[in-house]
Amino acid sequence: MRGSHLRRLGLALVTLLIATGTLAGAALADDERYTPGSSGLGDPFFPLAGNGGYDVQSYDLDLDYTPATRALVGRAFVTAVATQDLDAFNLDLRKQDEEGHFYAVSRVAVGKDNGPTLKDMAFSHEGQELTVVPRPKLKTGETFVVLVEYAGTAHEVTDPDESIEGFVPTDDGAFVVSEPQGAPGWYPANDHPTDKALFDISITVPEGITALGNGVLLSSETENGKTTWEWSHGMPMAPYLATATNGVFSLTVTELAGGIPSYVAVDPRRTNTAVLAHIPAVMAFFTDTYGPYPFDATGAIVDFAPDVGYALETQTKANYSNTPGESTLAHEIAHEWFGNAVTLSSWPDIWLNEGFARLSEWLWLEHRGIRTAQQSFDLQYARPATSSFWQTPPAALPGPEVLFSSPPYDRGGMTLHALRGKIGDMAFFQLLRTWYVENRYGNVTTADFIETAEEVSGMQLDAFFDVWLFQPGKPTSW
Ligand code: ARG
Ligand code: ZN
Q1: Percent of the chain, pLDDT > 70?
Q2: Residue 410: CB within 6 Å of ligand 1?
């Protein structure tokens, strides 16, 4: 309060001085312009996630991981554009705690490129906020590179629903998945889904260990008993979708229709992996149904990570903690279109990711002649009206502990299937294609979807969406 009052007074003074044309006034104005970027983007579920004042263009991560000791040494170059005049800004990275988990930062440098202009800068580190003090200060529109050097002991992040994520050590490596808040558990990020960026990820591991990143494999070179795996993904990606999973894997690379490379990595302990033979057909089906595949690679990582117990749609190749069933395989691949290319803008809108992926499972099963989407819907609809399931409307979630609970998935999928019935097949599939092509590589809200649905169908759908998305209780008419 007091600060803003003083600032306003200062501004008035500066305006006056500029008006009178004094040089001192101009200098004061210059100094006044620079403020610290905010330490969070105010997401309703994770207020400290992400940071204000800049927009990341690319991450260039160099990681060295030793599974036996869980030692992780990292060097990150983050290229960003200032969106305000900055005298300080934050990155999200977990600071080493009393138990020795997570990281100590040894060096932060800022420059115009990742070489000669880099200069060491003052910084401080508290919780998951790394604050950098760039000198000279950064002007709006200026592109800058931040180098962060850090080291420590990898450790999982525990979520509000008690599940684990982040850089999760396994018996032979690590299972690396970061939805919704695991990224600061292994690299300095502007950890919010609205700040998409390009990623180059290089992981050095003991010889014999395979490391997987997003996108395409550029090289793997072994020297002195260590292998460096270099991956590059030149398409926009939200920070929670990055991966660096490593362990003993057999890696098979094939080429799909359209020349898209498919990287399939399987932990040799997972022997029942025939399901993975469906990847090309699933890719082709969603390409036909939704539009061209958005990314430069596809595949799957099937690990042995029993403590994690779920899969994540890490961009271009999903991570599976166990061999997936056919529905889960289709679910994670469908996320490349909905979730990864078309991404929520804030976490309470999770149904925009999960409802679409659930519907996609149902469409895949229908396509395979296993069960119609109507039958999948009916199985869910059979839940009694008294079930707690109906008490949580998918677009009005009470808190982050229910992000990955049944309502955003199942009632989210049902919302879409009910919409199909309401507006008809023609308009419905047109809507899904329009939604995809208009928003791919960007971020969306529930309000955007309702607007697009009304536009494409030519119908007024407020009552429909109110019943399905916003009101507790089992919908009975819509
Ligand atoms: N998005 C993943 C899926 O498609 C689920 C991620 C769950 N994450 C968690 N921290 N529980 O099913
Ligand atoms: Zn999902």
Answers
A1: 94
A2: no
Phi-psi region of 372 (alpha: psi -120 to 50; beta: other; left: phi over 0): beta
Residue 131 CA, ligand 1 centroid: distance in Å: 29
Which position has the higher pLDDT, 7 or 197?
197
- What's the pLDDT tens digit per position in 9-24? 444 444 443 444 444 4
Q: Which domain holds residue 371?
A: 343-470
Domains in the chain, number: 3
Q: Quick one: pLDDT band at residue 32, thresholds 50, 70, 90?
A: confident
User: Strands, E, within 307-455: which ranges?
Assistant: 311-312, 318-320, 342-344, 442-444
Domain with residue 351: its CATH number is 1.10.390.10
pTM of the predicted model as reported, rounded to 2 decimal places: 0.93
Helix (H) or strand (E) holding 104: strand 102-111
Ligand nearest to the CA of 355: 2
- Ligand 1 site, residue 313, Cβ cutoff 6 A: yes
φ/ψ of residue 399, rounded to 5: -175, 175
From 311, 336, 361, the end of a domain falls on: 336
Q: Residue 115 C-alpha to ligand 2 middle, in angstroms?
A: 39
Domain assignment of residue 297, yes or no: yes
Ligand 1 pocket, mutate which of 161, 301, 310, 329 (most atoms under 8 A from CB): 310
